[in-house]
From TrEMBL:
InterPro entries associated with the record: DUF6316 (IPR045630)
Every DUF6316 domain range: 7-58
Pfam short name (any one): DUF6316
Name by which UniProt lists this protein: DUF6316 domain-containing protein
Length: 67
């Protein structure tokens, strides 16, 4: 579990769980917005998929970024 504050957060750190989960033998990641992506063959591939997703989100203009 992540116990560090994120940019802009104040007060106690809210509960956070892993972004990664496994169903059967397939791996997925979830976003803060509740979007699940997958399946991936391994957790490592799901982690790579999340990194790619976050990279694309950062390229979006500010008004189109997911919040």
């Amino acid at each position: 579990m992540d116990t560090q504050c994120r940019t802009g957060e104040q007060g106690p750190v809210p509960f956070r769980s892993s972004r990664f989960f496994c169903v059967g033998s397939k791996w997925y990641f979830t976003t803060r917005e509740g979007f699940d992506s997958g399946p991936f063959a391994s957790r490592e591939r799901a982690e790579t998929g999340l990194k790619r997703f976050l990279h694309v989100v950062r390229l979006l203009p500010e008004e189109q970024q997911l919040h």
